[in-house]
Records
---
Amino acid sequence: MDDKTMQGWLGFWEKKTLPWHNDDVHEAIEKHHEILMTSPTAKNKIFIPLCGKTVDIKWLADRGNEVVGLEASEIAVKDFFTEQNIEYTSEDAPAVKGKLYRSTDNKIKVYCCDLFLFSAEIESGFSGIWDRGSLVAISPANQKRYIELIKTLIHPGIGYLLEMPDRDPSKGDPNKGPFCISFGNLQEGFGPDCSVTKLCAVEKLLPKMIQHAPSIKGINVLRLTFR
Ligand SMILES: C[S@@+](CC[C@H](N)C(=O)[O-])C[C@H]1O[C@@H](n2cnc3c(N)ncnc32)[C@H](O)[C@@H]1O
């Protein structure tokens, strides 16, 4: 990711301006977490790319999953463990030019690095991926690269849930996220073995998120399935 975009994200954390952050577990995770927990070849290992300090990490770990998060901001990662009262250790992770934070019970790992330095050689065998504010946080110029990276973590039957806002194109600044993608473009990006369906609409929209991005008309959670 280019330095300017990364600085923009780190700036949100430094200023503690977090329009996307939800203090409650995501309603789709509460209802549909089983989708992420079992696949034909993997069980109870969930990847949350660009995880921020989402409370979903702990919620999923409390239900018997190993949760692997990845986040560029060290403020976010430390805030997550501190606010959730989880004891943790940290170590250098040279393979991703960053750090690895882990809970002392080893149920939660969070890589603090640029996503584009991550790969299936570092972590794999996921039963599910929870992509909330992750693909859509990536600028359109890099979304193809993001999808190519995520595809290396995909295997047939993996659970993939993706939150996708629905934006009114006539409103707001198109150069400012979230950067939404159509079903067609998603399907094309993930390839012929992927099919995309709408799982549910998010009922409780965060007022601060709508204030930040007034062009958001609604938010859906999509399910991607892979043959
Ligand atoms: C919209 S927030 C979503 C956070 C989280 N998924 C949630 O639901 O609360 C996007 C997050 O991605 C992080 N981020 C942006 N680009 C990144 C990158 N290239 N590598 C790692 N993290 C990144 C930002 O710091 C920010 O915390």
Note: Residues 68 and 206 are 25 Å apart (CA to CA).
---
Amino acid sequence: MPARTKVPVYRPYLYSASAIRDTYTHYAALRELGPVVRLHKHKVYALPRYAECKQVLLDEATFVSSDGVALNPVANRAGQGTTLFSDGEDHTRRRSLLARRLAPRALRALQDMVDLRAAATVEAAVARRRVDGVEIAAALPMSVVPDLVGWPPEGREHLLRWAGAAFNALGPLNRRAMCTLPASLGMLRYARGVVRTGSVLDGSLGHDLLAASEGGRIMPAECATMMIDYLAPSLDTTISAISSALHLFATHPEQWRLLRENPDLARKAVNEVVRHASPIRAFSRVAARDTVIAGTALPKGSRVLVLYGSANRDPLEWENPDTFDIRRDAARQLGFGRGTHGCVGQGLARLETTAVLRALAARVDRIEVAGPPEWALNNVIHRFERLPLELVPA
Ligand code: HEM
């Protein structure tokens, strides 16, 4: 059968404030239109269903990242030299240099420290009873990864703003991205200073990078980029997962009871949270040759948008996709990506999220919504800005 060349078009703007707040309604409309949908405003092909997202993520020879994974040319140029924006041997080299810090063995060594920090965070939150769930969610990501990367204590107060700005810049070049562009470069500027002065924490990943640069294994200029490579994607993403978990458990008390009865469900719950409320909305790829997706012909150079959040709610893949159920086997969710670029930090994100959930399950009988939550308006990250909760102690 010849490949289709006529592709359905979606005209609403996916990056308006209202679409960001109501993202799942747009995903459902896109999935209804078909497996490949032209986004009128961005001149890209959106993939709203699970099968095609997985196909693209697993075929890195055809769908490359080195032309950038953002939706605008400025970020696609600025991000050159990062693991996320590289392919082939270059990508393998960058990724392997740092991956051992996030491998299961390294994470086992972090377990006790993460559990202790989670317990202390929960203890303090339960004592206050009325809390902002985003603050609870931020506590671990804002300390564990900066320590791992070796970021000096001075300057940490800017990290979240810089990281959020970096994610904004990976969307289209709209007002939101333009306004945050200077801040998105803040982290790089700061990292360059840290590398220049060698002020990284001893024994950290940053320390390894400086040694690799002195040993001639990487270029000195790469050190700063690689520190950011690990730090920038670790903050908002994990904060999103933990705060979405808190909101989902507050609004599904029967699921909270299940978790309290069997805290071992926390590991499964992380997959279900990331499936149901995927922290990253979408990244793109470029077709390196003429190709076909789901019977649709795409010429070489086409940019395709992998909508992780939509794939994770595709009814062709999931039974009752909008239902939150921590007993579901959601291990195949795509919220951490898949294939060679699949999230290298997912073990750590799982460790942090599980630790917070287990600490809460031990101390909190009920989580209640204590006011209207507010969404963070970000082009790429799907997360709460404020989440008023009441923690009812056990
Ligand atoms: C719940 C938390 C997280 C989510 C949902 C998440 C999601 C993702 C996704 C979807 C990708 C794939 C990008 C692509 O397909 O192009 C990715 C890649 C990546 N993530 Fe995560 N991430 C999380 C936490 C972390 C953490 C904690 C770190 C670091 C400690 C991290 C570091 C990275 C890096 C370096 C890449 C690029 C990998 C590569 O290109 O080979 N992430 N992440």
Note: The chain has a mean pLDDT of 94.
